[in-house]
Specification:
The complex is a heterodimer of chains A (about 325) and B (about 500). Chain A contains 11 helices and 9 strands. The termini of chain A are far apart. Chain A folds into 2 domains: about 5-100 and about 145-175, Rossmann fold; about 190-305, no CATH class. Helices cover about 30% and strands about 15% of the residues of chain A. Chain A has a 5-stranded parallel sheet, with helices on both faces. In chain A, strands 4-8 form a two-stranded antiparallel sheet. In chain A, strands 6-7 form a two-stranded antiparallel ribbon. Chain B has 16 helices and 16 strands. Chain B has helices at about 45-50, 55-60, 70-85, 90-115, 120, 135-140, 140-165, 185-210, 215-220, 265-270, 305-315, 320-330, 345-365, 415-435, 440-450, 460; strands at about 5-10, 20-25, 30-40, 170-175, 175, 230-235, 250, 260, 270-275, 285, 305, 380-390, 390-400, 405-410, 470-475, 480-485. The chains are: A alpha/beta (about 325), B alpha+beta (about 500). At the A-B interface, helix 1, helix 2, helix 6, strand 7 and helix 8 of A face strand 3, helix 1, helix 4, helix 6 and helix 7 of B.
Chain lengths: ~325, ~500
Amino acid sequence: MEKIKVGIYWAASCGGCDVSLLEIDEQILDVAAKADFVLWPCAIDTKYADLRAYKDGSIDIVLFNGAIRTEENREIAKLLRDKAKYLVAYGSCAQMGGVIGLANLSSRKEIFTTLFGAKTHWPKEESNQDGYPLHLPAFLDRLLPLGDVVEVDYVIPGCPPPREMVSQFFDALLGGKLPEKGAVFAAEKNLCDECPRERREERITRIVRPHEIEPDPDICLLDQGIICMGPATRGGCGAVCPMANMPCTGCAGPPANITDQGATMLITIASLIGTGLEGEEELEAEEAILAEIDDVIGTFYRFSLAASIFKGAHRE
Amino acid sequence: MSEKIRRISIDPITRLEGHGRIELFLDEEGELADAFFQIPELRGFERFCQGRKAEDMPQITERICGVCPEAHHLASTKALDDCFSATPPPRARKLRELLYNAYIFSDHLLHFYYLGGPDYLVGPYAPPQERNIIGVIGKVGPELGKEVIKHRSYGQRIIEAVGGRSIHPVTGLPGGQSKAINEEERSEIEKMARSCVEFGRVTLSVFKKMFLGDKTYQKFSQEKAQRLPTYYMGLVDEDGAVNFYDGKVRVVAPDGEEFALAEGKEVLDLIAERTEPWTYVKIPYLKEVGWQGFRAGKDSGIYRVGPLARLNVCKRMGTPLAQVEYEAYLDYFGGGMVHATFAYHWARIVEMLAAAEQTTRLVADPELMEGALRSELSDPGEGVGIVEAARGTLIHHYLLDEKGLVRSANLIVATTHNIAGISLSIKEMARAVVHNGEVDQGILNLIEMSFRNYDPCLACATHAFPGQMPLLVVVRDSAGREIKRIER
């Protein structure tokens, strides 16, 4: 039987998604026995020229991690869409922009000024060094999730995707049992559904930050006033962060049927806040509690800003 | 560009972390005219870290690099310790060091067998489709192949036990750690760590057989053109031994003379940087020596970091087995300073063994299992955190406002320090192997091997911003309460 052709690519990424593929340990040997890796820049020596030479639709499946930050990212995403039968948004950045989508709070000009100083020091798309012409891909005005540039067939969420999900994906691929297009390889329900902490449904009377208290390890972090993104986040990881005494930050994106993760969590928090006072006094008290939340965007849209309803503050 | 000049692009360069491209220009005789090492990626962390909550920084900045997230996580956590004037309790410190040494082991293993190693374990001229980890397993056999996978996994499982996750850990907090490990985890780690020491020794014997026995490696590790007499930078502890987690930054000149011994903010004062229009990375150099263009030597401010540098700045290794291997390494290169860029590979696995040995020490330390995990925090201010990432010195420098939000973040990352060195190495190799305009995949791979020595992380490298932090002065009364805060 002919081997399945698998491509792995990173756009604007950290490489954690690539490492997450190694986290399946010896299963990678089974994968290698049944599949050929035809593209994987961090591990094998395929160049863009080799990739361009492949026929359209000749790669069975491409796992694409990273967001679209430069013109080169966009070009390769389109190229891979043509070459691949199935294209998978692998990890938070490809799915919804990821942490680096927070850059959409600033303009390109603001980013370059912070990084390089005066405009005379900025890198240029076309430059000439001692007579040698050099090109750099343009830095786009706004970071985009993969699905904003090309059609995506599957999503494997997480920053990076957890071992069990990656393993299940390869089982499905090698067993010829890929689900319907559009499937997300994770739980349907939210993280709270699998979190072992006891939820007491207590009203939030104050907001605290993780370094300000030592939380009880057995009780829900929200009950203790720490903002945990569990209610607005897709499960499947086993609630590893709450198990480590730290709140969920939402890396797996929203559960099924929810589009805006941050807005969903804001509504959840607003509904949990209360002091037991009445009327105006209660409203004032609730407002005071909400005002204790620092960095609303970085808290509620840590991974999903680029895919949110407002996509970031900036327009250029 | 004259019509007679020919351009050869290696795009993308492969078996490394991040995006890079090499542009070679050949003259009419087909000899190298010039070479450029370009980094075509940028994400802008320094910008979007502004306004974030301080305690989120260890988890935000680790997304700079998913191969070395532990390094960013702990450089960031240490910077926060400093920002909040907090000293983590011994138990928290030991937990961090345990995670950190397991990380160094695992990351160095990754490079040796998966990224840089295939060039020798499979062969520099082997068909490109075989020159990778799968080819390595084919060559060394499934038994050793499974040991490679198992021990990378051991490193990752130790990181997971201490850090909550194996990639992008979460347990670092200003002044301490969010969780401890239990006895069951500890004893499991102890078994894995012992096995890692054994595997470190196995890896050194693999190196001696397959690298030292490889003609290409022999040639380029001895050839003068592939030696760069530069300055070197790295952390050492009080005894002058290599320390990955903490210590003072020591800089030595090409002749071995100590150039600087610095800590905290002093380190930032040693470095200046320049920008080039053709790359998204900034190029640092030693401010006092100055920028003299892309060349090595005592009068050029170019310095290098990482395994080769650490073994040049240290006086010894901190553990016995690694010390023996360190001495054998020095003997091979004739003692004293080692400038051979190809020696990076050997230095890396000496460190891999050292990190495994250190892990066995830490896991047996009674302080790991007793006492507080957090210490008291003072009002937020400015702080610097420095660790040795697998690829070299990593510096996080933050300025916080009174609510503990980030005003400014300054990151000087391991591979950034090495950009000038990598550029030089690529140029020297291209000059040595490209003749009469003839290139094939083997020759182009030799050029790529010259950067793979450094194990570069180019996702990391596009972060450098020294010298532009706002100045902050906090005036306190005798009880330590903040009275006034001046910023400019």
